[in-house]
Amino acid sequence: ETGVTQTPRHLVMGMTNKKSLKCEQHLGHNAMYWYKQSAKKPLELMFVYNFKEQTENNSVPSRFSPECPNSSHLFLHLHTLQPEDSALYLCASSQEMGDSPLHFGNGTRLTVT
Amino acid sequence: GENVEQHPSTLSVQEGDSAVIKCTYSDSASNYFPWYKQELGKRPQLIIDIRSNVGEKKDQRIAVTLNKTAKHFSLHITETQPEDSAVYFCAAIPYGNKLVFGAGTILRVKS
C-alpha cells in the first residue's frame, strides 16, 4: 500500500466528456500535488495545495480544475480536454510543502479520444 | 526559476557494473536534491536525497554526491542488478519553492 491512492487507474474519455480524478492520502501530510507525466518529458507540476489552500497553478489550462475539500483528498476535474492532454496524471503528497520527500500515487492513465 | 538538466537520457550497463547519472541545476539557492526511481508501469519512489549541507550520502549500493560550487549532483549505483532497471529522475528545490524535475534517465541493466 503506497499511502497515496488514486482512482481510476485508467480513463478513456471523449473531448466533450466531464470526468474527475480522485486522490486520497492517509499519511497525515499537509501538502498535495498534481503532476502530469508525458513521454520523454520531465514531470510537470500542475497544482499544489498546502493545508487545503491552493498555492500553485502552473499556467494550467482552465479545462483542468482542482479541488481539495480537506487535507486528505484531492480531485482533478476534467472537461473538454484535448488529445494532447493524454498522459499519466500523478498525485503526490508531502509532509510539508518544500524540501520534504514526495509520496506518489500509482497515477491515472488518461486517454482523450 | 530553477532549471534541472539530466544526463544521459539512456544508459545501458552490464550487470555488476556501476552506473552514474548526473544532474546540473541553475539556482544556487537550491538546497534539497532527491532522486526518484520509476519502474515500468509504477509510481516514482524516492530512493535517496541529499541536502546542501553535505557533500555525499550513501545507502547500501546507492550514493549521491553534491558539488555546490559547480551546481551539479550525481547518482551512483554500484554492483548493478537487473531490478535496478528503471527510469531515474533527479530534482532540485530552491528554498521554500517547489521541486523541479530532470527529464529522466532510462537505465537498462543487461544480465
Would you write up a description of this structure?
The complex is a heterodimer of chains A (113) and B (111). With 113 residues, chain A is mainly β. Chain A contains no helices and eleven strands. Chain A starts with a strand and ends with a strand. The model of chain A has no long low-confidence stretch (mean pLDDT 92). Chain B has 111 residues and is mainly beta. Chain B has strands spanning 4-7, 10-14, 19-25, 30-38, 45-51, 56-59, 62-67, 72-77, 86-94, 100-101, 105-110. Chain B starts with a strand and ends with a strand. The interface between A and B is medium-sized, with 20 and 24 residues.
Order of helices and strands of chain A: EEEEEEEEEEE
Q: Tally of extended strands of chain B? A: 11
Task: Report the β-strand fraction of chain B as a percent range.
Answer: over 45%
Distance between the termini of chain B: 41 Å
**What is the tally of helical segments of chain A?**
0
Distance linking N and C termini of chain A: 31 Å
What is the helix fraction of residues of chain A, given as a range?
A: under 10%
Shape label of chain B: globular
* Low-pLDDT residue spans of chain A: none
Structural class from helices and strands of chain A? mainly beta
Please give the largest β-sheet of chain B.
6 strands, mixed
Annotation field: number of helices of chain B: 0
Largest sheet composition of chain A: 7 strands, mixed
Estimate the mean pLDDT confidence of chain A. Answer: 92
Quaternary: heterodimer
Secondary-structure class of chain B: mainly beta
Radius of gyration of chain B equals 13 Å
The pLDDT mean of chain B sits at 94
